[in-house]
Amino acid sequence: QEDNFIGNSLEASIQVKSDAEELEIYSEYLKELFIVSEVNLVDEIDAEYVYEGEFGSYGVNSAEGNKCNRCWMYSRSVGDSDEFPDWCDRCIEVVKEGNFE
Q1: Cα(76)–Cα(64) distance, rounded to whole angstroms?
Q2: Staple partner for 88: which of 12, 14, 43, 75, CB 3.0–4.6 Å?
Q3: Among candidates 52, 54, 31, 56, which has minimal Cα distance to 42?
Q4: H or E stretch including 40?
Q5: Do residues 65 and 14 make contact, with C-beta atoms less than 8 angstroms apart?
Q6: Cβ–Cβ contacts within 10 Å for residue 91, how many?
Q7: d(CA 29, CA 82)
Q8: Are 45 and 59 in contact (CB under 8 A)?
Q9: What DSSP designation does 13 have?
Q10: What string of H, E and C letters represents the secondary structure of 54-96?
Q11: How high does pLDDT run on average in the chain?
Q12: How far is CA 64 from CA 12, 22, 38, 61, 68, in A?
């Protein structure tokens, strides 16, 4: 954006309004696909910027929370852990389980 609304894609939270059934099936992978911190499938978009596309409508807001020092995604869970205060809950779980995906 010209107004520097977000500096990079990980600073974004995306809302998607679409009838495409595949989005629901693959919803857990959408933030990695779009390279953003959060994706929500919604019935109504409430966003700073709204874009109309061939397969639906897309809203963009700034991601909420703080930046995780491990995955660089923004999450409301960063700061919740005393043991790993700079990591999100997903990264803490991955490291504790030894599952480095």
Answers
A1: 6
A2: 75
A3: 56
A4: strand 38-41
A5: no
A6: 21
A7: 28
A8: yes
A9: E
A10: CCEEEEEEECCCEECCCCCCEECCCCCCCCCCCCCHHHHHHHH
A11: 91
A12: 9, 26, 9, 9, 12
In order of 17, 36, 63, the CA distances from 7 in angstroms are: 24, 12, 11
Structure tokens at 69: 């020092």
pLDDT at 2: 56
- For the record, the structure tokens of 17 come out as 């309004």
8-state DSSP, 31 = H
Give the pairing of strands 74-75 and 66-67: antiparallel
Helix (H, G, I), strand (E, B) or coil at 51: strand
Record the pTM.
0.81
Q: End-to-end distance of the chain based on CA atoms, in angstroms?
A: 31
User: Do you know the residue count of the chain?
Assistant: 101
pLDDT in tens, 65-95: 999 999 999 999 999 999 999 999 999 999 9
